[in-house]
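Hi R.,

As promised on Friday, here is the backbone we talked about, encoded as structure tokens. Could you run it through your design pipeline when you get a chance and send me back a sequence?
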């Protein structure tokens, strides 16, 4: 389900959005730009999650000789069990 949102930007913010959207810019339109900002925010929130931080600390604490390949499915399952 999508939401329609109307926002009002100041001159400086409006100029920034205009600079990064359009035919020759990084983003095709404002929607694409806002979606990118939302995704970056979600990514940042993920990396601030205490469970993710704990998992990373535990991984980096393992001696090199004990390292094993990362299994993303197993990681996701551990996070589901831990946060369900």
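Update: got your reply. Pasting your designed sequence below so it's all in one thread:
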């Amino acid at each position: 389900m999508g939401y329609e949102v109307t926002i009002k930007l100041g001159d400086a913010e409006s100029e920034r959005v205009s600079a990064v959207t359009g035919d020759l810019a990084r983003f095709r339109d404002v929607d694409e730009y806002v979606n990118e900002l939302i995704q970056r925010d979600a990514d940042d929130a993920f990396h601030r999650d205490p469970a993710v931080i704990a998992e990373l600390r535990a991984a980096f604490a393992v001696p090199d000789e004990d390292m094993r390949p990362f299994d993303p499915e197993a990681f996701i399952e551990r996070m589901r069990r831990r946060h369900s």
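One thing I noticed while checking it: Residues 50 and 72 are 18 Å apart (CA to CA).

Thanks again,
M.
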